[in-house]
Every structure is written in C-alpha cells, then in structure tokens.
C-alpha cells in the first residue's frame, strides 16, 4: 500500500478560481514533505518542501500546509491560470534523515477558460 | 546551464535487447537518482548515487544496473529488456549539504521506453 494517498484523482476548475488538493500519508516520522508539479510529458518540478516542524510554506500562488497530528497535507492554488493545468504530486521522505522519497499518484488538475 | 539532460527521448526495444539510458547534470550536484513512472502510478526509485563511485539500490532495482564514474554522469543500463520495463524513466539530481535533508531534486525531461 502506498504510504501517500492523494485526492481527488482529477479536478476541473474555471480559470481564476481557487482550489485545494489533499494528501494523506501514513508511517511517521519523516524528515520532509514535498509538492511537485508535473506538466504532461515533462519531469516533475519542485513547488514546496516542508520539514516535519513546519506547517505552511508558500511559493507564489501555491501554499502548502502540513498537519502532522492528522497526517495530512494540502496544496492550495490561488487565482488559477491555464498554465496551472498539470499533475500535482505529494511526496514524503521514507524516514527521518532519509533521501529516498515516496511519491503519491498525483492529482490531475485541468484549468479551463 | 542545461540542468539535467537525458537521452534518448524515446526508444523501442525488443525483448532481450539491452540499452543504456544516459543522464548528465551540469549543476555540480553530488546526489543523482533514477526513477521510473508507470501509467497512473507514483514514481519509484530504481538506483541512486551519493557521489562519484558510490551507488545503491532503491525500491525497484531488479533488471537494471548503474555506474557513476564522474560527478556529471549517471547512466542506467537495462540488460535483457522485458515488457515489464516499459515505462517513463526520469533522472534527477540534487545537492545535499552535510546534515541537511531538504535538498531540491531537479528532474530531467524523461525517456519513454517501450519493450515489445
């Protein structure tokens, strides 16, 4: 069983709207939790990296949150743009101090005009 | 600064053939990684390297080999290709300073491999 579960699998929103993507993880502890953006046919690109002790991290219109008590993270996208259409992947390290990553399956976001 | 480059972009192999996927980075990163991404699945680590001459197995190493003779290059070798190795392969690199765990991994554009 994947230690990282993401929801929804896919999402369609209108340009300019906000959205929130969810990530639930099992097995603690870990050293950090990451969000990546992957455009179709391209490699993933890092959006945010949060350590276990952080509960929020922003990168422009992207804001990630982390709740270690409930083992949940979310990625909030503000004022969506057509270029935000991509898969968003939640990733956690395998353990404290580990550099091996466990990837979620991703949420496919489509932003339509 | 090209970042992480991978060749080829696409390749079709017959069962039993061998090939090498090339990966190079020009960012002087010490860590390099090979992942595979199957349709609808999360990326899985095949092999990684923490520096020239040092490699180790990841989650799914069977059927693959790697070497790291220089800081820049990290080729992935497929021996006796099988249909189960049909996937998209991504190389990544990062700079990890001693005691730090928040290094950003930079990914290449991927190689789409089909084994028939």
Question: Would you mind describing this structure in some detail?
Answer:
The complex is a heterodimer of chains A (113) and B (116). Chain A has 113 residues and is mostly beta strands. Helix content of chain A is 0%, strand content 56%. Chain A has strands at residues 4-7, 10-14, 19-25, 32-38, 45-51, 56-59, 62-67, 72-77, 86-93, 101-103, 107-112. In chain A, strands 2, 4, 5, 9, 10 and 11 form a 6-stranded mixed beta sheet that branches. With 116 residues, chain B is an all-beta fold. In chain B, strands 2, 4, 5, 6, 9, 10 and 11 form a 7-stranded mixed beta sheet that branches. Chain B has a 4-stranded antiparallel beta sheet with strand order 1-3-8-7, with no helix packed on it. The model of chain B has no long low-confidence stretch (mean pLDDT 94). Classes of the chains: A mainly beta (113), B mainly beta (116).
Biggest sheet layout of chain A: 6 strands, mixed
**Fraction of residues in H or I helices of chain A:** under 10%
Number of alpha- plus pi-helical segments of chain B: 0
Strand content of chain B: over 45%
Shape of chain B: globular
* CA distance, first residue to last residue of chain A: 37 Å
**Largest β sheet strand count, sense and barrel closure of chain B:** 7 strands, mixed
Share in β-strands of chain A: over 45%
Query: Average pLDDT across residues of chain A?
Result: 91
Rg of chain B, rounded, reads 14 Å
* Poorly predicted tracts of residues of chain B: none
Q: What's the total number of strands of chain A?
A: 11
Secondary-structure element order of chain B, N to C: EEEEEEEEEEE
Oligomer: heterodimer
Radius of gyration of chain A, whole Å? 13 Å
